[in-house]
């Protein structure tokens, strides 16, 4: 999964892009912002993103000025604007592309296809995801065991924890497996279609193995506790609301 963010002061522009994201299951929209100042505060403190879609004409701080600050926090940057006059400024801040509003789904997909090397992963849609989900295990090199290949079943992974240049997998049996890999790379291999989702800067959780939730603290099967990060809190609360059974009658 590729972690993406949209920054645009026009809510309808964000809603339009959200509909495009639904056509591309490999792109995970982790946050949207109508306030560029809020985006600046949150993005600069979080793990590097795969893509930022950024409007230019915004109040308080322009997209060009914002890009100068957050450019190193994303692998790819696309400007989305209704004006053609910012081409040179976009080039100066190393933008990967420039989408002129309004743009079609076909235009958007063409740009995404050129920017991401794993084209089949992005454009496989439901059929590709179903094929991947059918594979119920994977192998990793264990850094604690002379790089021996260890078989891990997806359903047994409770969480993946970032450990500097390594990732530690926590399994339902209590076993911990340390492997040389970034958390972003592990996220793409685990996949949200299997129930894995990032709710904290240093953790990916298997939402199928959540035991209980107390405020912003999640207890996983096996007892592991993880505090939801501020950056992911809105996304987490939406996940809870989507899965919460509510009584219609008043207490």
UniProtKB/TrEMBL annotation:
InterPro entries: CheY-like_superfamily, LytR-like, LytTR_DNA-bd_dom, Sig_transdc_resp-reg_receiver. Keywords: Activator, Cytoplasm, Phosphoprotein, Two-component regulatory system. Residues 148-214 form the HTH LytTR-type domain. Pfam families: LytTR, Response_reg. It comes from the Bacteria. GO terms for molecular function: DNA binding; phosphorelay response regulator activity. The modification 4-aspartylphosphate is found at residue 55. SMART domains: LytTR, REC. Signal peptide: none annotated. Residues 3-116 form the Response regulatory domain. Required for high-level post-exponential phase expression of a series of secreted proteins. PANTHER family: STAGE 0 SPORULATION PROTEIN A HOMOLOG, TRANSCRIPTIONAL REGULATOR-RELATED. This is Two component transcriptional regulator, LytTR family. It comes from Pedobacter suwonensis.
